[in-house]
Amino acid sequence: MTSADWLLAALGTVAVAAGHRVVATDRLVRAGLHLVLCLGAVAGMYLVLTAEFLAWVQVLIYVGAVVVLLLFAVMLTRAPVGAAADLDRPGWTAPLVGGAAGLGLAALLVDAYRWTAVAPAAPGTPEALGAAVFRSWVLPFEVVSVLLLAALVGAIVVSRPGGRR
Amino acid sequence: MSLAELGLRVALVVVAFLTLPLVVGQAEHKVMAHMQGRLGPMYAGGFHGWAQLLADGVKFAQKEDLIPRGADGPVFRLAPAVALLPYLVVLLVIPLGPGDLVAQPLDAGLFFALAVLGVGVVSLLMAAWASANKYSLLGGLRGAAQLLGYELPLVLSAASVAMAAGTLSLPGIVAAWRPWWLLWQLPALLVFFTAALAEIRRPPFDMPIADSELVFGYLTEYTGLRFALFLLAEYVGIVVVAALTTVLFLGGWKGPFADASLGWLWTLLKVFAVSFAVIWLRVATPRLREDQLQRLCWQALVPVALGQLVLTAAVVTAT
Amino acid sequence: MGLPGEGVLQGLAVTARTMTRRADTRQYPDVPPDLPPRSRGVIALREENCTVCMLCARECPDWCIYIESHKEEVAVPGAARPRQQNALDRFAIDFSLCMYCGICIEVCPFDALFWSPEFEYAEYDLRDLLHEQGRLGEWMATVPPPPAHDPRGEPAKEEAAARRPAPGAAGGGA
Ligand code: SF4
Ligand code: SF4
Predict the structure, then answer these.
(1) Yes or no: domain C39-146 corresponds to CATH 3.10.20.310
(2) Domain residue spans in chain B?
(3) Inter-chain contact B148–A72, Cβ cutoff 8 Å?
(4) Contact indicator for C55, C113 with CB cutoff of 8 Å
(5) How does it sit in the membrane (chain A) (predicted)?
(6) A164 domain-assigned
(7) When comparing pLDDT for C96 and A82, which is higher?
(8) Considering Cα of B37, then B43, then B49, then B55, what sign does the dihedral take?
(9) Residue from C14, C15, C24, C27 whose CB has the most chain B CBs within 10 Å, to mutate
(10) Do C and B touch (≥3 CB pairs < 8 Å)?
(11) Distance between CA B134 and CA A27 in Å, rounded?
(12) Is 0.85 exceeded by the ipTM?
C-alpha cells in the first residue's frame, strides 16, 4: 500500500466513525458537528484522489453552507445542550437496512472490478471540471439547474403567508 | 519544493499569523483613540503604549479558565481552535510577492480561500451552542444568518475578478491585474469589502456580539486564553480579509515601481491600508440592526454583485 | 435623505478630521488637572470658628456629619457669673455618605466649613472615608481664597445696610 492508500483508509475510517456518531449520538447539535467532521474527511479523500476542486466545493457547499444551515435550523427550533430524550429511533430495522444497503453496494463494486486496475483519472483541476461540465455534460447540468429553480419556486410558494395550505 | 523549504515557509506564515494581528490590534487601539479625541494606551512598554497587547495577553493568560457547568465541555473547548485554524490555512495561499513568495501556490487558490473561510461559521455555532447560555445562542443564530447571507455576495464579487483574470489562482489574478481594473471592478471591490467585513463580524456588522443587547453574543461565556484566542481570530480575520482584498482587487504586489524586488512591501502596505479602512469604518459607523443587515445584503449587495458579474462577463467575451 | 451611504461618508470625514487634531487627554497622574475655581472636592473645617451650633449636622440631608461636644465654664473677668461655652470634642464627616450638596457649607453661620478642591483622598475601604476633624482641618490649607467681588455686581446686603444712614441721623425716620 502506498502512503496515499493509507491516507485514504485513515480518512475513510474517520468518515465512517463520524458518520456513525451522527446517527448514534443523542445530542442533536453534536450530531451536526460530527457531520461536519464526516464531510470534511470525505473532502480530504477527494483531495487524496487529486480531485482538488471537488474537495474545495465540498468544503464550501457542504461544510460551509449545508451543515451550517442544518445546525442553524436545529438551534432555532430546539437544541438542548444535554441529551435529547425524545429522539425516536427505529430499533433494529435501521441498522439492518443501512448495513445491507452498504454491504450490498460494496459487494457490487468489488464484483464489478475484481482485479482489473483502473488508470487514475487526470487531476480534477478547475479547467478539467469546467470543460467536462460545459462541454460533454451541458444538458444534464442545465436540467439540474431547472430542477433547482423549480424547487426554489416551490419553496417560495409553500412558505408564502396567506397562500393555499 | 523540499520538505525543509515547506517547513520554513509554513513557519514564516505562522510568524506572520502571530505578528500581523498584533500590529493591526495595536493600530486599532491607537487609531480609534485618536479618531475619538483620546490618546489610547500610553504606558505599557514606555513609548506610546506599544506593548499594550502583550500586556493584555499576559493578563488573559493569568485569568481563570472557566467552563460553565451546563456547557458542553469538549465543544466549548474546541471552538476557539476551529475559529483560528481557517484563517491560518488561508494565509498559506496568499501571495506576498511575485514569483515564489507564497507559502503554497494552489491552482484553485481563490476557491480554497473562500471555502475555508466559510468553515469559520461552524466555530461560531459551536461556541454559541456549547455555552448553554441564551445570549450566546441568540448571538450564534444571528451570526449564522448573517454569515450565510453575506457569503453569497462575497463569492459572487470574487467570481467577477476570477472571471476577468481568467484564473482561480491568486498569483494568477494579481499577474492579470491592470490598474484600470480599479475602476471597472469598483462595485465588486465595494461589495467584497463590505461582505468580508460582515464575514468577520466587524462593526458595523457586529450584530452577533452586540454588547449592548446580547452581553457579548457567542463570546459571553468565554474568559481567559480562550477568549484571547477568539480576539486573535478577529484580528487575523482583519488581516486575511485585507490581504484577500489586496490580492483580488488592489493588484497585490504591483506598485508604482520595482514590482519585482519590492513586491512584498507593496502588498504589506496595501494590506495595512485596507486594515486601516476596516478600523476607520468601525469608528465611524453605528451597528446595523438585524433587518437592516439582511436588507443591505439581499437588496443591495447581491444585485450589485450580480450586475458586476454580468458586466464582467460582457467585457470578457467582448475582448 | 441624501444618497445611500452619505451618512457613512460623513462619519468617516468627521473621524478623520478628529484624528488629525491633538487629543484633549490630560495624563492625570503625570499632569495635574486644571480644576475650575469652585470645584467641590472635599469639605474642610476651620475648627476655631465652629460654635457647635449643630446647624450643619441638622441640615445635612443624609446625616453624615457627626458632632460631639461638652459645655465649658469660662470665667469672664468682671462678670457676675462664669459663662457657659460649647467646646467641640469631635467633628467628623462620613464621605462615603456625603453627596457633596454643599448645604452644610451654606448654612454654617460662622464660616467654619469650606469647599476645598482637593480630591485625592480615595481609600481602599469604605469605612476609612469617615474623616475626623484633624484631617478636615488639614484640608483648610488647600482652600483657595474666595473669588474677588464682581466690581459691577450688586453690593452685598450687609454692605448696603452699613451704607444706609442710621435712622434718625438725617431726618425722615418714623
Ligand atoms: S455636603 Fe451635603 S451631604 Fe455632605 S456633609 Fe454637607 S450637607 Fe451633608
Ligand atoms: S454649622 Fe458651622 S458652626 Fe455650626 S456646628 Fe456646623 S460647622 Fe460648627
Answers:
(1) no
(2) 3-25+41-318
(3) yes
(4) no
(5) Multi-pass membrane protein
(6) no
(7) C96
(8) negative
(9) C15
(10) yes
(11) 18
(12) no
